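Researcher: Let's try something more involved. This one mixes different molecule types, so please make sure each is placed in the same coordinate frame as the others.
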Amino acid sequence: MFIRWSAALAAAILLSSPVLLQAARAADKLTDPQIAHIAYTAGVIDINAAKQAQKKARNKDVKAFAADMLRDHEAVNKQALALVKKLNVTPEDNDTSKALSKQASDELAELDKLDGAAFDKAYVANEVAYHKTVNGALETQLIPSASNAELKSLLQTGLKIFQGHQQHAEHVAAQLK
Amino acid sequence: MTPGRLAASVLAAALLSISVPAHAATIEITMENLVISPAEMSAKVGDTITWVNKDAFAHTATAKNGDFDVTLPPNKSATSVLKKAGTVEYYCRYHPNMKATLKVEP
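Model: All components are placed in one shared frame. Result:
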C-alpha cells in the first residue's frame, strides 16, 4: 500500500525524484507517529507556499486564496499538535516526510524565479496538483493506515478541508485563464 | 378577577394567538466537520437564519445568486434575515465542497 501511494506521489509531483521510491521499498508499514509527521509536514509545506504567495502574488483572488491556505493549514496543524500532545505521541521523522520537504523546497525555489501573472498561474497550478496528491495519499494510505481513532478522525476532517481547497484552487485557476 | 380584567386577558390571549403565527421564526443552520446541516431547509421571508460554525476553521454561507454572503469565523455564529423568496443554493467559498439549499417561501 505504501508503495502504491509513493508511486502515485512520484507520478504526480516527484517524477524526477527517486528518493521516495527508495524510501517506499525500505518501509513496509507506516506507524501513527510517522503518519502524524507526514500529515504535519504536508501542512507546513502548504503554509510556506502560501507565505511565499502572499509576498509575490499579484492577482487579488490568488492573494486571498493564499491567505485561506495559511489560515486553514495553520488551524489543522494546531489541532494535530494538540492531538499528539494529548495522545503522548512524538511525531517521527521519516523518509517520506524528508522527501516531501526536499521536493517542496525545490518547488519554492522554482516559483521564486517567477513574477506577476506567471507566478500566480504557477502557484495556483501547483496548489491544485499538490492538494490532489495529498488527498490521494490521505484517502488511500494515511487514513487506512492510522490505528488511533482520533488521529484517523482528524485526518478525515483534513481530507474534507483539503478537498475543499482543491476545488477552490481549481476555481481560481479557471479564473486566471 | 373583575370582568374588566378578564376581558383584558381574553383580549390579550386573542391578540397573542393572532400575532404568534405572524411572528418570524429563527432557524439554526450548523456547519460542523465541513458539513452543513440540515442540507435542505425551508423558511419564510422575514425569518432569521442563525448560522452556527462549530469548526475551528472559518467558513462562509455564500448564495450562488448573490442573495447573501455571510462570513463565519471559527466557532462563531452570525444571523441573516431572509428578504426574498426563492430556492437558494449556497456554499462555503473557502471549501466549495460544502453545499446546501435554502427554500425561502413568500
